[in-house]
């Protein structure tokens, strides 16, 4: 989980966009989770992962959530998990199956990112993936929280014909100028890249 993930979840909590209890997938990876943040908003939190460990309340493979024994949740957090699974669509389907009515699945996935094995790294996700999933599964994407983390709304970065585009690799015009100068001096291939080196999507699916 990255700091941008925490900022995204905090924004959702501050806008009362999530209901409890909240379940977080991949909570046993050894790094920070959303437990303290969620509990600070007075909501019940549970963590799940494939193996037992600190912060893991439910142990099991989420491709088949029967290990939860009929429990249901108001919101499920899937933060930088799907790229490490072989069947990410099955994972999202499983999340929907244990959501309460009008529950939310909060997903963060990389679009442009270095390979980060844990233990595998299989996919990169684009906005059209979420749009097609929502259409085929008859769920809604909350347009207020469909964004490139740290850059802004997905709808704010479109090509002239309305198709999807990445945000540019700069947030300020001074960054653009500095980058052009550096790439010109050192003749690097990076000057040809028109998107950030690290870019993730945040999405909220509503059942």
Give an overview in words.
With 207 residues, the chain is α/β, with parallel strands linked by helices. The protein folds into 2 domains: 3-154 and 196-206, Vaccinia Virus protein VP39 (Rossmann fold); 156-192, no CATH class. The protein has helices at 3-14, 35-40, 88-97, 127-137, 173-186; strands spanning 22-25, 45-49, 58-59, 73-79, 99-112, 140-141, 147-148, 152-153, 199-206. Strands 1, 2, 3, 4, 5, 6, 7, 8 and 9 form a 9-stranded mixed beta sheet that branches. α2 links the parallel β1 and β2. The longest helix has 14 residues, at 173-186. It is globular, with a radius of gyration of 18 Å. The two termini are 24 Å apart. The relative contact order is 0.16. The mean pLDDT is 92.
What's the short version?
The protein has 207 residues and is of the alpha/beta class.
Can you tell me the number of structural domains?
Answer: 2
CATH superfamily of the largest domain: Vaccinia Virus protein VP39
Beta-strand content bin: 15-25%
Largest sheet: 9 strands, mixed
For the record, the CATH class of the largest domain is: Alpha Beta
Q: What is the general shape?
A: globular
Strands, count? 9
> Radius of gyration, Cα only, in angstroms?
18 Å
Structural class: alpha/beta
| Total helical elements | 5
The CATH architecture classification of the largest domain is 3-Layer(aba) Sandwich
Oligomer: single chain
Elements, N to C (H/E):
HEHEEEHEHEEEHE
CATH fold-level topology of the largest domain = Rossmann fold
Q: Report the mean per-residue pLDDT as an integer.
A: 92
